[in-house]
Structure formats: structure tokens, C-alpha cells
Amino acid sequence: YDQKYSKSSIRKLTHQKLNEFELIIGCTGKPSLSEDQIKALRKDTCLVSVSSSDREFRGVFLRKNVDEILNCHQDVFSKGVYLLNCGFPINFDDAYAEIDIEEFQLTRAILLAGLLQACELGDQTGLIPLHSFLQTRIYGNYSEKFLKNEKVIATCAT
Fold it and tell me: Using alpha carbons only, what angle is made at residue 41 by residues 35 and 46, rounded to the nearest 5 degrees?
């Protein structure tokens, strides 16, 4: 979400504001929503964790209300909300060898650069392009390692 309060903590959102969201992606590594906040979510809200465990959305609290869970990667519906991958991070599955492929370095580098740039920008909100010099450097390093034999033309937003 990108509203005037997008840089503030989700914990401060009122029940009325929480009811505006259909999709909440958690990446704090700790509980993002209280049980009361979960109960206040709009019907059919989808909760997606991209942190390192199932604590982002109090998975235990939501799973205990599901009659039958066949496996730990099942999407469940509880308390009127969808909890993808049983609350575990969406990228956790049984394909462990695929989690850390070398090409994922590009994604990691872009995410890290975006986070560092966000720290520099303070409270600025809106769609903010990644600095072009960062894009060029990251892509240059990536293409040097992975696209040696391919002719690629890269353009960057300024």
C-alpha cells in the first residue's frame, strides 16, 4: 500500500484502516498483527508471509481453527481470511535446492539497493525508481557473471 501513512508501523493502523486491505504481505520476522487486528480484517483478506518463519501472522492462532490440514504448505481459510502456505513464508516449500540459485543474487541485490535507498529518502512516499547508477552497476555485475555470451541492451529509468 502506498498511502500517506505507508512509512508508519502497521501496528498503529486502526481496525477501520486494516479493513481497507485485501492483501497483506508480512516481512518483519515477528508478529505483524495482533489477534484483534486479524479479527478486524475484511472478509477474504489474503495474508502472505515472506519472512523466515510462520510467526508473521500468528499462524498457530489461525491454524487451530481449521478442521483438517493435510500438509504444512497448504493454504488455509480461518477467521474469514486466507493464510497462504499455512502461514509459513510463501517461498518455503520442499524444493530446497531452488531457494538459493545463483541467479537469485540479482533479486537480492535489487532488494538491498532499494532498502538502502529508502533509508536515505526518509519519509518520502510514492513510486520511487531505483537510482539509475545502482541499476546500471547491479545489472552490469549480473550480466558479466551470467550473460557472458548474450548480447543485451540495458536501459535504466532516470
Answer: 100
152 pLDDT higher than 60: no
Stated pTM of the model: 0.55
Domain boundary (94, 118, 133) is at 94
Rounded to the nearest 10°, the torsion over CA 1, 90, 54, 57 is 30
- Do residues 56 and 36 lie in contact, with contact meaning Cβ atoms separated by under 8 Å? no
* Residue 79 and residue 121 share a domain: no
DSSP string, 87-152: GS-TT-SS-HHHHT-TTHHHHHHHHHHHHHHHHHHTT--S--PPPHHHHHHHHHHHHHHH-TTS--
In this predicted model, what pLDDT tens digit does every residue of 29-86 receive, in sequence order? Answer: 788 888 888 888 989 999 988 877 778 888 888 998 888 888 888 899 998 999 999 8
